[in-house]
Amino acid sequence: MWCLARNLPLLIGGLIPDDDDHWSLFCNFLEIVRIIFAPTVSRNQIAYLQVLIQNHHETFKELYPDCPITPKMHYMIHMPRTMLSMGPLVRSWCMRFEAKHHEFKRLAAHLGNYTNLPYSLAKRHQEGFCYRLQTTEGSLSSFIVKGIETGPGHHCHAGDVDYQGILMRDDPAVTNDTPLTEFKRVSVLGTNYKVGCTLQIVTDQYDNPVFGQVMKIFLLNKNINDIFFVVSKLNTIGFSMHYQSFEVQVTHPRQKLIIHHKNLSSFLPLNQVKPFGVLTRNKYVVQRFDIGTNN
Fold this sequence. Notes:
The protein is an alpha+beta fold. 35% of the residues lie in helices and 23% in strands. The chain has eight helices and twelve strands. It has helices at 2-12, 21-36, 43-63, 71-77, 79-86, 95-111, 117-133, 164-170; strands spanning 148-150, 153-157, 179-183, 185-188, 191-194, 198-203, 209-220, 228-240, 245-250, 256-260, 272-273, 283-285. Strands 2, 3, 6, 7, 8, 9, 10, 11 and 12 form a nine-stranded antiparallel β-sheet that branches. A hairpin with a 5-residue loop joins strand 6 (198-203) and strand 7 (209-220). Helix 2 runs antiparallel to helix 3 (43-63) and helix 3 (43-63) packs antiparallel against helix 5. The longest helix has 21 residues, at 43-63. This is Transposase.
């Protein structure tokens, strides 16, 4: 449902007028959701969240006077104050606990033995836990910590690639004979990246994201602990309130950059999408959550 809500503006937004009050209410709700699910939140965002929630509830009563305010809508009023005292609300999310509980419910139905169900569930859980602790999943991954996993690679030297110049500017120690391995995809700490995805490479002085499209993924000297991306920097035109996403366009000529994975502004890979039924050369990037850097 969350994924559908985030992408719904790009699916049907082109069919809705810009001045539609009901659509504005939905876009207001999406703004609230992006801040609530953010892993880091600034004080300015918390103050803005309080205003958004107030406007949402007031507009909701104006548009739907016969619909009551539900308890969950009332709980939203207390969210900004809770974030000030406890930090980002996503850290208190019960989703992972519900997922773990679902594992036990599914196991109980599979066992079909209810003589001493707590003992049976605890024993099966501990046996499985011990097995996974002693079994690695390959590469640098384990049951406790996801490491770095790569797909099939292509071995070459720094002097053989078309991004040799920016690579040497990024690291003066690189020479033409420096071994280099390129990949089509890579998984870092459980997050999958592939050529063609979009990354938020930095946040500018105005707290606006700067995006780049991944052209190459590689590592130097077979050092799997340091993943590099060759990205084509995108020009961020601005944030579209109607589509609840950032409008971007490819720069001409393309501006290529070398980005270290550890230096990314956000570690989530994104996609560029065109709104359905809208004729435009530009594309839109939908963020899962807002990233606040200013206090």
